[in-house]
Amino acid sequence: MKLLVFGCKTMREGVLATAVFLITGVALVLIGMKVIPEVWFFPHIFLALGFLLLLFAPVILVSTFLLSVFPKAKEKLDNCDH
Amino acid sequence: MKINDLLPEFITRHVLIAIIIGGFGGIGFILFLIEFDHYTSTEEFCTTCHSMTLVAEPYRESSHYKPRSGVRASCGDCHVSEGVFSATWDHFMGMNDLLAQLFGPDYDDPVINALHLPDAAFKARKWFKDRDSDTCNRCHVKEAIYGERPDTLAIHLEDARDKSCIECHYNLVHRIVPHEKTFKRAQWNAMIEEEFSLPKGTAKELLKNK
């Protein structure tokens, strides 16, 4: 249940996770396209993983945003140290 | 006058920075998705799987690959929807094919591939029908299908007025597969056994062992 308590820390973690997912996703896709040799299905697996990470990045960010606009969460976030 | 004076109160410096970074990040994200969709829609990419090279053989002999006009349709032009979000969704759903390729039957084997082809064809036809053959309409306009016979245009404008392209043109590009309503598995299996000189009953066994 503690996960559901949305505060400054979870807000930062959400934004950070988005950035990590986005950067890792792009990196995996580029690696899958340019670096990995066409052995077995390795390039496809890299591409699929990168693609999934890329798609989840905005999902996390949007969820974080939606949680942050809940009235109670908003009050808490107003007291965050930036 | 400071910039802060021009902005509403709730847009603080941090919010402004977040909007700018998020905005550029969002633009980058969409551009990357467009590039990704474009790359994964090419024939070059699709045929990196051996199973797809088998499917591509008849395509390379088809009028969609060798048209008189020189307008060539690649895999994605027909099998991936238009628009970044629709194309991304199609690629997301297309990951099922990757999973099937990794954990399913050995589609790289020409016999297995041919045996499963009808199921793939029916699935693809349904995909086209559900979208009212949207990807066909990227290039083809019903009102402009004059053809060589005098009644071609009339057929498309009258008889096929409320029909989707795929309802009639379901054997255009890839290996011919009968319509789902008339398809007979036993006959298909016998044809594949004959084509690959396999003993009778092998096809059924191979399908059972998938």
Written description of the protein model:
The complex is a heterodimer of chains A (82) and B (210). Chain A has a domain at 21-74. Chain A contains 3 helices and no strands. Chain A has helices spanning 8-35, 42-68, 71-78. The longest helix of chain A is centred in the N-terminal third of the chain and has 28 residues, at 8-35. The radius of gyration of chain A is 17 Å and the shape is rod-shaped. The model of chain A has no long low-confidence stretch (mean pLDDT 84). Chain B has 210 residues and is mainly alpha-helical. Chain B has 11 helices and no strands. In chain B, helix 2 packs across helix 6. Chain B is 59% helix and 0% strand. Chain B has one domain: Multiheme cytochrome fold. The radius of gyration of chain B is 24 Å and the shape is extended. Chain B has helices at 3-6, 13-39, 43-46, 50-61, 75-79, 84-103, 110-130, 152-159, 165-168, 185-195, 202-208. Classes of the chains: A mainly alpha (82), B mainly alpha (210). Chain A binds chain B through residues 22, 26, 29, 33, 38, 41, 43-45, 47-48, 51-52, 54-55, 57-58, 61, 82, and chain B through 14, 22, 25-26, 29, 32-33, 36, 39-40, 48-49, 88, 91-92, 95, 98, 101-102.
List keywords for this structure.
heterodimer; A: 82 residues; mainly alpha; rod-shaped; B: 210 residues; Multiheme cytochrome fold; 59% helix; extended
Quick gist of this model?
The complex is a heterodimer of chains A (82) and B (210). Chain A is mainly alpha-helical and 82 residues long. Chain A has a domain at 21-74.
Topology:
The complex is a heterodimer of chains A (82) and B (210).
Chain A: H1 8-35, H2 42-68, H3 71-78
Helix pairs in contact in A: 1-2
Chain B: H1 3-6, H2 13-39, H3 43-46, H4 50-61, H5 75-79, H6 84-103, H7 110-130, H8 152-159, H9 165-168, H10 185-195, H11 202-208
Helix pairs in contact in B: 2-6
